[in-house]
Amino acid sequence: MMTFNIPYIAVIGLILVGLIAVVFKRNLIKIVIGITLIESGVNLFLITLGYRENSIAPIYTSSPGGLMSLPVPQALTLTSIVIGVAVLALMISFIVHIYRHYNTLDASKIRGDEE
Amino acid sequence: MNDILSILINHSPALIVAVPLFGAFLTPLVGMINDKIRNIFVIFITLLTGFFTVILVNEVFTNGIKTYCFGAENPSVNPVVRIFFEIDGMSAFMALIAVILPIVAVIYSWGFAKEETGQSKYYTLILLMTAGILGMVLTGDMFNFFVFLEITSISSAALVAFWTNKKNSVQAAFKYIVISSIGALMVLFAVAIFYGQYNALNMAVIANNIGFGFLDKIALVVLIAALTMKAAIAPMHMWLPDAYSGAPSPVTVVIVGTTLASLYGVFRVVFTIYGKQFLTILRSFGDFAVTPSLLIGVFIVVLAVLTIVIGVFMALKSNDFKRMIGYAAVAEIGYMILAVGSAISTYFIPTGTTTVTMAEHGKMALTGGIFHMINDALDIGLLFLVAGAVYYATKETSLNKLGGLSRKMKYTTVFFLIGLFAVSGLPPMNGFASKLIIYQSTYQVNPILAIVAILCSIMLLAVFVKVFHSAFLGPEISSTKNVKEVPKSMLIAMGILAALIIFFGLFPEFVITNIVEPAKNALLNSSEYISAILGGV
Amino acid sequence: MLDQIISTFETGSGFWNPLVWLTALVIAFLIIYIVRGFGKREYKKGTDQTQAFLSGNPEYEKDKMHVKANNVYWGFTESLKSVYNFFGKMHTGNVSDYVLWFVIIMGILFLIFGVI
């Protein structure tokens, strides 16, 4: 019974490690890696919801019989992975511009012209 | 003619989202021909979207909820398998706001962005943002809401960083995309919890079957925290002045629509999806029962008072024109959420019946909060357009270096005066009408709320009088001696917003009975929302 | 339709009619204009009679006479310095702190909904 709960525990672990990386790290690239970890955790959660015990992949038209795992969460996860790729590319291009202006990647030294 | 019109009304939910998307992908091709033709094309696309929105809103306000199924004439409702767009009064109200702002922004951009490079990409991203906001408010499906939320946040973050040669814009864009992405991922987490429990992604099906167990509580907490972070409620509001001041001014006007659409998401989750479970008693101390409506209401009201106070205090201190208006925008969002939060906390069961009702002053507070949404969009939009006009004429944003602008820029001064009266709630502008309702109805919930609201309204007046004195009044300074009045397209855009503000202020009863009342009734009737799709369950 | 446009709107505990207010404002301005017409008309322009009075101080050049923006509310910000220090420390500008506030609010909400 315990072995079927390991993916859910991994989800909580990934999201926690990602949030710790975003909150406590000061390098901008490490913050971006933290966001990628959170996104991987949520995608894993979506896929694990569709699994049924002893099921086969939902890709057959004339299947050899047996239970199939749910295909809807797999479609949702594909959409989410594509969105994650676009957001990651945008964040890294912003980091390139920030480095050109500030010459540092420390998050506490990057301030706008406040007041 | 009537047949064509009825076909257009039937398919208008799909057309409202498809026309800006299609126009967004055609704009770079049209831009290769000529600049003027591309500008006319973009204005035509936004006006066409406005026409479809107006006929849809007219249909919904007279005939009730309209549903639209993508891809089938007679979709099956047992189980629901296709994506539905469901437009009730609140969605129609938000669609009106979401279509006025891009029209004004695109007309303003004709004069503002004339000498920039990369204008085709600028107009493409504005049209993509329009499609995203309209999709977010019209949809009836939770995962579709997440996809449109991501479309809006990606295109708006790219537009915040439009001036890549300025330090302020790129760092503001990075903070904005980090905050948006974390908020959207948490929304996806809650959608996954809903799917795992109820095997449905449709909002009406989830609302029909919802309970209040352990997993539902987790989903509610995550959704409220993530969506209120996107709607800039304290203490998670700090990205808003950075992002609003780093973006070009017409882009900021459309980002105001994004913030209001995330606030619409909070209302949709709290009122419609969790509507059936609002009065389950969680714990009772003798005669006093603790219900989810009381908890959510009190929490939102505490955050609202914090938002108003922080917004006004930081606005009084700052010296940058756009940052000051950004902090004032945070305070205005606090007013909306103060009204709606105090309305949520007044749910009760009258003796002798078993249906849940809201007290009368609660319903009035809800009306005031919803009316304030459209007032705030118009006021803050006009103020940002004036800030953009001042930047276009003098190339300065810091208030320490401006002075005596009203001698040469007469129309801009008049528009700024109208915006000043509207934001601080002076008659006869529209801000006074909605703030009067908020003061009088929150006083009956707790007198302290009304006192804080009135005091901070006076301080908002102080903030903008400071801007008016230091930028517009006074003798002419040598650095601003040669300013000229801004081009006509920018004046026309500001004039549209000012005319709407004066119209809403002089005829508030007309606006409330025809536009705000259907939205308030739609929020209070979650069973009507469910039965429009599931057919009388 | 016309009486719907110009009717008063009632909140639960009051009412407000903007057109009546506007008429009262116009009448007030008319009275003020008539009272202003009772003033003296004979004065000489361009001499000392139309100069601003600055308590006997001389008038500097125009660039220095204008009060700058961060000096306008000096009394208010100086007397509330402790409040502004607290708010200033909260708005650091660091993106990790923004996410920390989000985690704190989510934790408080979990506590509220979990315990009660």
What does this structure look like?
The complex is a heterotrimer of chains A (about 120), B (about 525) and C (about 120). Chain A is an all-alpha fold and about 120 residues long. Chain A has a single domain (about 1-55, about 70-110), classed as Orthogonal Bundle (Helix Hairpins), CATH 1.10.287. Chain A is built from three helices and no strands. Chain A has helices at about 5-25, 30-50, 70-100. The radius of gyration of chain A is 20 Å and the shape is elongated. The termini of chain A are far apart. By secondary structure, chain B is mainly α. Chain B has a domain at about 280-525. The longest helix of chain B is centred in the C-terminal third of the chain and has 35 residues, at about 360-395. The radius of gyration of chain B is 23 Å and the shape is globular. The model of chain B has no long low-confidence stretch (mean pLDDT about 90). With about 120 residues, chain C is mainly α. Chain C has a two-stranded antiparallel sheet. In chain C, a hairpin with a 2-residue loop joins strand 1 and strand 2. Chain C is flat and about 80 Å long. In chain C, about 10% of the residues are buried. The chains are: A mainly alpha (about 120), B mainly alpha (about 525), C mainly alpha (about 120). The interface between B and C is large, with 70 and 48 residues.
